[in-house]
Specification:
Number of domains: 3
Strand content: 25-35%
Distance between the termini: 49 Å
Radius of gyration: 31 Å
Strand order of the largest sheet: 6-7-8-11-10-9
Number of strands: 12
Largest sheet: 6 strands, antiparallel, barrel
Number of helices: 10
Length: 405
């Protein structure tokens, strides 16, 4: 039911129609929200996959036969310890023992020889739990602690497994969503102003296009094509605002051409090896729409005008008033659709596991489920990358467009 609701919500989101020319968006930067959710879905998918596979592998065919015949769990005493062996591992160990126990079947108690695993060495007279079918003494009998026996018949997981599951979800949430879902670039401007690190210039937009960003994702990676907005300042000249690689420049070109506003930026706290980099920036248009990105100049050797530094008492746009610019893009919708299809494929693999397909097939399907989500995320990124590269080949995006560099 949860999966169906998630899929329905995803489909409705992807089918949303375009609003006005400047698109619809909230006060938070939608790119980080989108990337955060995709990252959270991709990396946390290992958790439900593990749980489904674990639930399928833990019960044994013999345990299911007991369930079909009417299972029961009772406490009984160990009559005799036939053998006991300590099995050690790198961090812990356990005892594997063969014991005789009295099983209270409906036709009368019977002594059964069974194997059990325990953390302590079992002793005669010790009380243990026994799983059996009261009406079918010919079926197998299981002995151990109550938690392990409940797991064999599809009962609840132990608290340690639940704790690890919640911890893994929390870790994925923190790594992918914390600081992104609530990302408000305008609020960041107010903090930078109080620290005396905020710069601003009035600008007009003279072009929208695609170009190579001088900043690679990592030192070993290649430079990426990204959407780029050309800004012209009377005091400084040309500046270039590079946007995230998920942003499509096509729906931005016509609405932004000739629009005026202010570009705000803060310099990085450390020296970066990028010659033309200026800093993290937010372009706030006169219509109170904004886009966030990375600001670069055509010549970093030119000094910024003294008036660019924003004094701590200067009034800024109020937090929450400017709305993120998010025009609808078929390419972005297609990339999101690719991720959604990968999730559907992954869910299908887990559904097959629940029908009982054997240990080897269960492990294979679980691995395929996780791989499908990760590959879907990768394919979505490649779709956007190819789209931007095609625009950088020289195709115009409208009057005043910047061509690929």
């Amino acid at each position: 039911m949860v999966a169906a609701a998630a899929v329905a919500g995803g489909v409705l989101f992807l089918r949303r129609r375009a609003a006005d020319d400047l698109g619809a968006g909230g006060k938070h930067w939608w790119v980080e929200q989108r990337n955060g959710w995709v990252g959270f879905a991709a990396w946390s998918w290992a958790v439900p996959t593990f749980l489904v596979a674990y639930a399928a592998l833990t019960p044994t065919p013999a345990a299911w036969e007991i369930v079909d015949a009417g299972s029961a769990m009772r406490t009984t005493e160990i009559e005799k310890v036939v053998s006991s062996k300590y099995v050690s591992s790198q961090r812990a160990g356990h005892y594997t023992s063969t014991v005789l126990v009295s099983v209270p079947f409906d036709q009368g108690s019977q002594t059964a020889e069974v194997e059990m695993t325990s953390s302590d060495k079992p002793k005669a007279g010790e009380e243990v739990w026994v799983l059996f079918a009261p009406l079918s003494p010919d079926l197998e009998v299981f002995v151990g602690d109550r938690q392990s026996l409940e797991e064999k018949i599809g009962g609840r997981a132990d608290y340690w497994t639940v704790f690890l599951t919640l911890g893994c979800f929390a870790f994925c949430w923190f790594m992918n969503l914390f600081g992104r879902w609530r990302s408000d670039p305008v609020a960041g401007l107010h903090r930078s102003r109080q620290q005396g690190r905020l710069y601003a210039l009035p600008v007009s937009i003279t072009g929208v296009g695609v170009a190579l960003d001088e900043r690679p994702v990592s030192p070993s990676a290649t430079k990426l094509h990204k959407s780029r907005i050309c800004l012209t300042s009377v005091e400084f000249g040309e500046l270039y605002l590079y946007l995230d690689d998920i942003i499509d420049p096509l729906p931005l070109a016509l609405p932004l051409m000739g629009v005026s506003g202010h570009v705000y930026w803060r310099r990085p706290t450390r020296q970066l090896p990028y010659a033309d980099s200026v800093g993290y920036a937010v372009l706030i248009l006169d219509g109170q729409r904004y886009v966030a990105g990375w600001l670069e100049s055509s010549d970093a050797s030119v000094d910024l005008p003294v008036s660019a530094l924003v004094p701590t008492d200067r009034e800024l746009p109020a937090v929450g008033e400017p709305r993120a610019l998010h025009p609808v893009s078929p390419v972005e919708a297609s990339a999101n659709s690719t991720v959604l299809k990968a999730l559907l494929l992954a869910i299908g693999a887990l559904v097959v596991i629940t029908f009982g397909v054997g240990e080897v097939a269960t492990v294979a399907l679980a691995g395929a489920s996780v791989l499908a989500v990760l590959m879907g995320r990768r394919r979505a990124g490649l779709q956007m990358k190819r789209h931007l590269e095609s625009l950088a080949s020289g195709r115009d995006l409208g009057t005043g467009t910047i061509r690929g560099a």
